[in-house]
């Protein structure tokens, strides 16, 4: 099975990388761009687990290892 | 409108960050984890554009700015 976890800064946290990308796009005349936020994506291949187990364990490991819960938020989904 | 672009290393490219995360998870007894690949996610807020324009312009800017096409691949989708 494959799980995708998306980690991004909380909305209240400044995102200088996203701002830099936005500014680069604007200087290249992609002036329809209003805002850019950059984050991380993890694609995790795991052994087959029950849905219940996945719902327990993926948020747990995302919270402990993949994201810093003080400044980041995450979402996850089963992709395969 | 909001566009999500996922950028990750091509499968043939080593991913030391993903390996480090995998090793960390294994030492924490998440031993159902088989592999981890880490990438970047960009959430781009744009003015309303036609589907046709989006299909032209998003791959173009992803290729020029968000990803390094030598070692990275990307996918994108409209999320809002």
Polypeptide structure, described:
Two copies of one chain form a homodimer. Chain A has 80 residues and is of the alpha+beta class. The first copy, chain A, has a single domain (2-78), classed as Phosphoribosylformylglycinamidine synthase subunit PurS (Mth169, Chain: A). Helix content of chain A is 35%, strand content 36%. Chain A has two helices and three strands; from the N terminus they run βαβαβ. Chain A has helices at 16-27, 51-66, and strands at residues 2-9, 33-46, 72-78. In chain A, strands 2-1-3 form a three-stranded antiparallel sheet. The longest helix of chain A has 16 residues, at 51-66. Chains A and B meet through helix 1, strand 2 and helix 2 of A and helix 1, strand 2 and helix 2 of B.
Describe the structure using short key phrases:
homodimer; 80 residues; alpha+beta; Mth169, Chain: A; 35% helix; elongated
């Amino acid at each position: 099975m494959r799980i995708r976890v998306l980690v991004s800064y909380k909305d209240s946290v400044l995102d200088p990388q996203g701002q830099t990308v936005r500014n680069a796009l604007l200087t290249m005349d992609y002036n329809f761009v209003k805002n850019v936020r950059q984050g991380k994506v993890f694609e995790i291949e795991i052994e087959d687990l029950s849905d219940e187990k996945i719902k327990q364990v993926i948020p747990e490991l995302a919270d402990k290892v993949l994201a810093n819960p003080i400044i980041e938020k995450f979402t996850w989904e089963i992709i395969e």
